[in-house]
């Protein structure tokens, strides 16, 4: 049977295209596409879902594909042509390379397995640790200096603690937790500019813990920057509503722009157990609002734990408030 001219013009290009596809090495029939499965095991600290799996052809003809890793460590890539591939485990927004394997899809059998054995760093406050420290733990010398610094700080040997934290940072400038602890210590020592520098370093290194943000909020308040202090405090409280430093900083910062005294007093009350001066500030707020009895109660609590060099001023204020209360009752 002969084809008419119009039919021939339609079918010939289609047949030619089909022949080209079938001869082309780039054409992979769907039945030949493969699935590559992988598994990430972590022996020590860390969670599989904090990492991402990537796959990329060895010849780099195309970009990489990503796969989330489930909490049980499983991941997979589908619809792959038989070829050579690199599979990587990466971490963080910058896709920091952790491990990599080369496979031949189609000939390699079974599941591609990765095992991470991160060294256990010192226990971070509230379970927070930077991705950099998770992927590349600090050297042992840095960790040893860090632990000595913590011990010195617990024993109120402030100068020794500062020197030892600095030693840890000198050994490993990327030791985010050492920057955090040193910054928090500077806040305690009323050196807010030094505190701010260390805490910002911790944030740049990826440590966004409530402790970093709370200490930064208090340092900014000490620097008379209440709006920035308020913003940092709110970030901290979004992560940990009970954070004492953040509650104190927010309560104190709100005094600059708000007359919502019940809210201010609520934040100060959450801080008072760990920061005694919160009761002193609370007493001033209550006195300002006319709650003399409440102010006396706060001052009485503060005097039980206040530093000796602050006692005389606090006692004088207490006597003044008691006199005002007596006068008001007459």
Helix content: 40-55%
Rg from C-alpha positions?
31 Å
Low-confidence segments = 1-28
Shape: elongated
Describe it for me?
This protein is α+β, with helices and mostly antiparallel strands and 330 residues long. Among the domains are: 30-116, Immunoglobulin-like; 276-330, no CATH class. The chain is built from 13 helices and seven strands. The protein has helices at 5-23, 131-135, 140-154, 158-171, 176-188, 192-204, 210-222, 226-239, 244-254, 261-271, 277-289, 292-303, 308-329, and strands spanning 34-42, 51-57, 65-68, 74-80, 84-91, 96-104, 112-116. The protein has a four-stranded antiparallel beta sheet. Strands 4-1-7 form a three-stranded mixed beta sheet, with no helix packed on it. Strand 5 (84-91) and strand 6 form a beta hairpin. Helix 6 packs antiparallel against helix 7. It is elongated, with a radius of gyration of 31 Å. The protein starts with a helix and ends with a helix. The model is unreliable at 1-28 (pLDDT under 50).
Which features would summarize this protein structure in a list?
single chain; 330 residues; alpha+beta; Immunoglobulin-like; four-stranded antiparallel sheet; 7 strands; disordered N terminus
Write the topology of this structure.
Elements: H1 5-23, E1 34-42, E2 51-57, E3 65-68, E4 74-80, E5 84-91, E6 96-104, E7 112-116, H2 131-135, H3 140-154, H4 158-171, H5 176-188, H6 192-204, H7 210-222, H8 226-239, H9 244-254, H10 261-271, H11 277-289, H12 292-303, H13 308-329
Parallel strand pairs: 1-7
Antiparallel strand pairs: 1-4, 2-3, 2-5, 5-6
Helix pairs in contact: 3-4, 4-5, 5-6, 5-7, 6-7, 7-8, 7-9, 8-9, 9-10, 10-11, 11-12, 12-13
């Amino acid at each position: 049977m002969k084809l008419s001219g119009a039919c021939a013009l339609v079918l010939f290009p289609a047949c030619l295209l089909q022949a080209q596809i079938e001869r082309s090495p780039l054409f992979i029939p769907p039945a030949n596409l493969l699935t590559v499965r992988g598994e990430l095991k972590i022996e020590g600290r860390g969670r599989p879902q904090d990492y991402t799996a990537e796959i990329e052809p060895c010849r780099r003809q195309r970009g990489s594909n990503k796969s989330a890793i489930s909490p049980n460590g499983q991941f997979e890539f589908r619809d792959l042509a038989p070829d050579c591939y690199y599979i990587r485990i990466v971490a963080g927004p910058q896709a920091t390379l952790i491990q990599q394997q080369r496979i031949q899809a189609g000939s390699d059998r079974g599941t591609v397995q990765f095992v991470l054995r991160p060294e256990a760093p010192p226990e971070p406050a509230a379970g927070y640790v930077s991705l950099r420290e998770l992927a590349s733990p600090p050297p042992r010398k840095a960790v040893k200096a860090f632990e000595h610094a913590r011990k010195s700080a617990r024993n109120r040997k402030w100068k020794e603690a500062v020197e030892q934290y600095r030693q840890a940072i000198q050994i490993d400038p990327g030791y985010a937790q050492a920057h955090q602890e040193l910054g928090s210590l500077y806040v305690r020592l009323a050196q807010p500019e030094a505190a701010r520098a260390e805490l910002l370093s911790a944030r740049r290194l990826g440590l966004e813990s409530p402790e970093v943000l709370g200490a930064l909020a208090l340092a900014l308040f000490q620097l008379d920057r209440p709006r920035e202090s308020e913003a940092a405090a709110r970030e901290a409280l979004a992560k940990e509503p009970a954070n004492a430093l953040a509650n104190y900083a927010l309560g104190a910062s709100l005094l600059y722009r708000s007359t919502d005294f019940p809210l201010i007093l609520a934040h100060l009350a959450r801080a008072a157990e760990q920061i005694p001066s919160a009761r002193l500030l609370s007493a001033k707020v209550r006195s300002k609002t006319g709650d003399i009895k409440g102010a006396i109660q706060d001052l009485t609590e503060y005097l039980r734990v206040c530093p000796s060099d602050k006692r005389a001023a606090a006692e004088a204020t207490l006597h003044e408030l008691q006199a005002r209360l007596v006068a008001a009752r007459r």
